[in-house]
Design goal:
By secondary structure, the protein is mainly alpha-helical.
Length: 119
């Protein structure tokens, strides 16, 4: 079976997402968090990368990855949940840490966006 070069592989989309996250961190290093902070987008990238790697994210790890306060990360996660891009999976008895992940819609949107960037 031959690979269609116009259809990116999961591995190439993962690499692109990782590169985007690194570029964002590099911009932050030079220009600071205040000027170019994108916590919502960073959370989406981090959740996509985690999904592709098979890892689980909590609200705390999403906060750390976005370089935002836990309160800011919670607000952004709430917005992303409201948009249907992210889902929250509560642990037993709704005790923290609660896991967060891309919803099927969010995963599809991230793949579509990354695929469009490759083409």
């Amino acid at each position: 079976m031959t690979h269609n070069p116009k259809v990116p592989t999961s591995a190439s989309l993962l690499t692109l997402a990782e590169t985007m996250l690194l570029e964002q961190a590099d911009r932050t290093r030079w220009f600071g968090d205040v000027l170019l902070s994108e916590p919502g987008w960073t959370i989406l990238l981090e959740l996509y990368i985690g999904h592709e790697r098979g890892s689980v994210a909590t609200i705390e790890t999403a906060s750390f990855a976005s370089r935002a306060s836990i309160e800011t990360a919670r607000r952004w996660i709430k917005v992303l949940v409201g948009l249907g891009l992210v889902r929250i999976d509560h642990g037993p008895k709704f005790v923290e840490p609660t896991t967060v992940s891309l919803s099927p819609i969010g995963l599809s949107a991230m793949r579509a966006h990354l695929t469009a960037q490759v083409r």
